[in-house]
């Protein structure tokens, strides 16, 4: 007679492979409480704010979390997806997951899901769900074309933190950056060409605006800056544009430190003051449109450009859940699944 497996082992489903798409995060609503909860989780992440908690927490809990939730909540309200009552980042991430599942139907053992680093659904919850559905292998895809410790590494950390609490861990593979992948560069170039073709004017300058990081993070060895430069160089090559015509800039500064330069807001203002009349801005580092692209660029930067004498401003949307955008994500996933599926 064979001994029965202890309860738990015999009942485990297995043999499936999970693909977990993870983006930055999103508040549940634009109200003060939702915003504060979201910002608190975000801004207590040591990968995001590297200051010692002794120095940072009095500022965070004494000032930032009292003032910023209302301010940022108002900004979110202007770009909220009213139809779904959620942020567009959430809408696009879910769509990307659904479309990815449709694209991978030739791999019947693969289950696709999505999560957010901050807010819901959490990485821990989705890893548990994938495990419960029989995934003994999980491909974790932080949705950032360029690697930064503040984005990619914190997603990986959070996933491994969940694994630390599991007795029977799934195998976990993390997806690396894809900042020079030709399919990504082609998709960006197409998005620029296609969007400019819809305008009855052409920009004198195009800005490739990336989210910034503090300069000190770069100096400590973060490869993010070099990767943004490389993406932009390849995009320029693909579009046949000069350095002067397609410029790189960095946006979304936070706090008093020096961040990567040139700054997007200052460049937009300077260009307008120097007499540029028509500019376009794209955000190659954002897989999906979000607060930082829809509000900071399409609203705030446009307003600043007009206010300082500019006439025409175009925001080129992110790749989002478009055919080109999905082709990029699918290619990366299929490549990283090799040997598994
Ligand atoms: C020191 C603070 C921050 C660093 C470093 C940082 C890096 C970083 N962020 C993104 C992508 C996004 N950031 C978004 C919002 C956002 N970012 C910060 C701060 C830092 N980001 C804050 C405080 C916020 C919240 C809004 C605000 O209070 O101003 C978003 C948008 C999220 C959304 O819900 O729409 C994205 C996306 C990258 C790629 C990056 C480093 C490379
Ligand atoms: Fe950010
Ligand atoms: Fe911002």
From TrEMBL:
It is an enzyme of class 4 (lyase). The keyword Chaperone does not apply. Its EC number is 4.98.1.1. HAMAP family: Ferrochelatase (MF_00323). GO terms for molecular function: ferrochelatase activity; metal ion binding. Keywords: Cytoplasm, Heme biosynthesis, Iron, Lyase, Metal-binding, Porphyrin biosynthesis. InterPro entries: Ferrochelatase, Ferrochelatase_AS, Ferrochelatase_C, Ferrochelatase_N. Belongs to the ferrochelatase family. The gene is hemH. NCBIfam families: hemH. This is Ferrochelatase. It is found in: Cytoplasm.
């Amino acid at each position: 007679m064979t001994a029965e497996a202890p309860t738990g082992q015999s009942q485990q489903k297995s043999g499936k492979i999970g693909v977990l798409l993870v983006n930055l995060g999103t508040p549940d609503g634009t109200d003060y409480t939702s915003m504060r909860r979201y910002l608190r989780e975000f801004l207590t992440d040591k990968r995001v704010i590297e200051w010692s908690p002794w120095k940072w927490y009095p500022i965070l809990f004494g000032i930032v979390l009292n003032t910023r939730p209302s301010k940022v909540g108002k900004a979110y309200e202007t770009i909220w997806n009213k139809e779904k009552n959620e942020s567009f980042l959430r809408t696009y991430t879910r769509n990307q997951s659904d479309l990815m599942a449709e694209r991978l139907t030739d791999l019947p053992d693969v289950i696709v899901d999505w999560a957010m680093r901050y807010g819901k659904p959490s990485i821990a919850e989705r890893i548990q769900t994938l495990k419960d559905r029989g995934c003994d292998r999980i491909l974790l895809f932080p949705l950032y074309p360029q690697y930064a410790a503040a984005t990619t590494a914190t997603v990986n950390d959070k996933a491994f933190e969940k694994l630390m609490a599991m007795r029977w861990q799934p195998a976990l593979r993390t997806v690396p950056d894809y900042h020079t992948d030709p399919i990504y560069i082609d998709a960006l170039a197409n998005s620029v060409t296609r969007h400019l073709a819809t305008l009855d004017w052409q920009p004198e300058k195009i800005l490739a605006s990336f989210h910034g990081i503090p300069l000190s993070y770069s100096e400590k060895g973060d490869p993010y800056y070099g990767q943004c430069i490389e993406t932009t160089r390849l995009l320029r090559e693909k579009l046949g544009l000069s350095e002067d015509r397609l410029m790189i800039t960095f946006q979304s500064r936070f706090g008093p430190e020096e961040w990567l330069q040139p700054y997007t807001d200052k460049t937009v203002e300077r260009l307008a003051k120097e007499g540029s009349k028509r500019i376009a801005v794209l955000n190659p580092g954002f897989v999906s449109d979000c607060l930082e692209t829809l509000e900071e660029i399409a609203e705030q930067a446009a307003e600043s450009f007009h206010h300082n004498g500019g006439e025409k401003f175009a925001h080129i949307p992110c790749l989002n859940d478009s055919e080109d955008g999905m082709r990029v994500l699918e290619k990366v996933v299929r490549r990283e699944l090799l040997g598994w599926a």
